[in-house]
Amino acid sequence: MSLGLNLAPETARTRIRANAIRRGTAPLDSPLDEYTFDQEREGVIWAPSALLETPPPPVDAAPTVTITSPANNSNFSSGTLISFAANATDPEDGNIAAALHWTSSRDGQIGTGASFSRTLSSGNHVITATLEDSGGNAAGNSISLTVGSPSTPTTVHVSSVTFSFQGTTLFYTFKLVNEFGTPVSGASIRASLYEWVFTGFLWFTNGVTDAQGNVRFQLNNADFGCYTALAENITAPGLSWSPTTTPDNNYCRL
Q1: For position 234, which CATH number holds?
Q2: pLDDT tens digits, residue range 107-132?
Q3: Is the pLDDT of residue 20 over 70?
Q4: pLDDT of 241 over the 60 cut
Q5: What is the per-residue DSSP string for 104-172?
């Protein structure tokens, strides 16, 4: 069947793209790599306007989401029942706040709809409210809030290294704390011990901190000399190692 059109390929492509609806949201996603040759979702062609029979349809506008409660950077005591609310309007669909999905960066999904109340775990949260309109346009908004202490630890470091000698065994203990000085338990540490006067020997060992943030290592049959210990690597759940210089330390047995 002939449509009475004689268009160069690029002209036809340009006309098709200019007269598509739901650009960026349709067709739907497909698991097949060959679904689109350019990895771009061009939309659904509106045939009448592509054939110049009618004007192209208006582009489906994205909705707007505004979180009205709680205020950004709010702080709540632990155990508080927090009220959440948001507005969501769409030029084509009107009020669509009932379709909102709410998530917390710490607690996962926490609610749905225009408003609800929820108790959150202690710590810092990024609260996000998202939805899609009938045209497949996604929108959302986020706020931050804190429950409990406004200071949540993020790093771990060595606060001290101590030595002791029993018989011929040298003991050296690392203490790990967070940036607020609280002991960090369950942290894995790789430590080195260096004798820098007589032998120049270097030893490596691994351990895990106890409930007080301490981990003790030992060197059997330690010879005379001076020793310095360093943290080579530290891994702690939920914390990043701040590889500042290990506190000055040495122990000499001369």
Answers
A1: 2.60.40.10
A2: 899 999 999 999 998 878 899 999 99
A3: no
A4: yes
A5: ETTTEEEEESSEEEEE--SEEEEEEEEEE-TT--EEEEEEEEEES-S----EEEEEEEEEEEETTEEEE
Residues 159 and 248 in one domain: yes
Provide the whole-model pTM: 0.45
Structure tokens at 152: 């949540």
Q: Residue 99 in 3-state DSSP?
A: helix
User: For residue 201, what are the CA distances in angstroms to 142, 146, 197, 215?
Assistant: 55, 49, 10, 22
pLDDT higher at 85 or 17: 85
123 beta partners: 147
In a domain, 97, yes or no: yes
Of the candidates 148, 96, 144, the one whose C-alpha atom is nearest the C-alpha of residue 122 is: 148
Q: Which domain holds residue 212?
A: 155-253
Tokens of 22: 């739901």
State yes or no: cis peptide before 63, omega within 30 of 0.
Answer: no
Helix (H, G, I), strand (E, B) or coil at 48: helix
- How far apart (Å, rounded) are the C-alpha atoms in residues 116 and 105? 18
* Beta-sheet pairing, 240-241 with 155-166: parallel
